[in-house]
């Protein structure tokens, strides 16, 4: 069966927003109040892309962090993150160009992020990307976060499409696992600078040509 790509669903951190370092620094600043820390290597290889509450659960299992501290550390982490978002988050022209052009061409656009709703909304607004999206999904909209595919399944359902009509843009292992499990096509990127109009359209052409489809 041949299906044209009709929607692009983006992860946020590390895809549309260069926020990985902000999350790392904010979490370490919060953990540092109790003499704890996550190394850069751990952050990239173990915790990358996971919600803070999941990171803290893992930290308790592996390093003995008291679960009684989770709510406080999580609250402080979110505050520190938002401080950095307001200080550093800025529009990136190639993202604005990509999303505005794709929107004009008729593609449905959404974001599915393991971050909390407030963080997603503020970051996308400050990056001037929120206006191009049909909707966004946060970790508060689902029961299971990535690497579970629930938020991608929900996004596809909300668009009224089937997985084969969707392209997901992801950058980390947990996100890629979720994207592939949804049955959608996946464009893997390494940095926010790889998320360009040309790269997205080239992937769409590749997908549609491979299945004998056509494109406008």
Record field, number of beta strands: 5
Mean pLDDT: 94
pLDDT < 50 runs, ≥5 residues? none
The Cα radius of gyration reads: 18 Å
Structural key phrases:
Rossmann fold, globular, single chain, 5-stranded parallel beta sheet, 216 residues, DNA polymerase, domain 1
Quick overview:
The protein is built from 9 helices and 5 strands. The protein is of the alpha/beta class.
Give structural notes:
It is a single chain. The chain is α/β, with parallel strands linked by helices and 216 residues long. It folds into 2 domains: 7-17 and 90-210, 3-Layer(aba) Sandwich (Rossmann fold); 20-88, DNA polymerase, domain 1. 49% of the residues lie in helices and 10% in strands. Helix 1 (20-32) crosses helix 4 and helix 4 runs parallel beside helix 6 (117-126). The radius of gyration is 18 Å and the shape is globular.
Could you give the topology of this structure?
Layout: E1 7-10, H1 20-32, H2 40-45, H3 52-63, H4 70-88, H5 93-104, E2 108-112, H6 117-126, E3 135-137, H7 150-159, E4 166-170, H8 173-182, E5 185-188, H9 197-210
Parallel strand pairs: 1-2, 1-4, 2-3, 4-5
């Amino acid at each position: 069966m041949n299906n044209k790509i009709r929607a692009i669903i983006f992860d946020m951190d590390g895809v549309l927003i260069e926020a990985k370092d902000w999350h790392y620094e904010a979490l370490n600043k919060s953990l540092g109040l109790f003499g704890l820390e996550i190394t850069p290597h751990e952050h990239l290889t173990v915790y990358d892309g996971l919600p803070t509450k999941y990171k803290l659960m893992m930290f308790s299992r592996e390093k003995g962090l008291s679960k009684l501290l989770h709510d406080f550390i999580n609250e402080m982490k979110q505050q520190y993150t938002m401080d950095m978002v307001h200080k550093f988050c800025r529009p990136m022209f190639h993202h604005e160009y990509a999303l505005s052009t794709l929107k004009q061409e008729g593609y449905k656009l959404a974001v599915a992020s393991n971050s909390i709703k407030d963080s997603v909304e503020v970051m996308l607004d400050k990056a001037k990307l929120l206006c191009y999206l049909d909707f966004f999904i946060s970790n508060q909209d689902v029961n299971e976060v990535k690497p579970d595919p629930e938020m991608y399944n929900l996004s596809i359902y909300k668009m009224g499409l089937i997985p084969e009509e969707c392209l997901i843009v992801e950058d980390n292992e947990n996100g890629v696992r979720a994207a592939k499990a949804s049955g959608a096509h996946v464009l893997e990127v390494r940095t926010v600078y790889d998320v360009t109009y040309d790269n997205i359209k080239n992937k769409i052409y590749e997908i549609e040509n491979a299945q004998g489809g056509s494109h406008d």
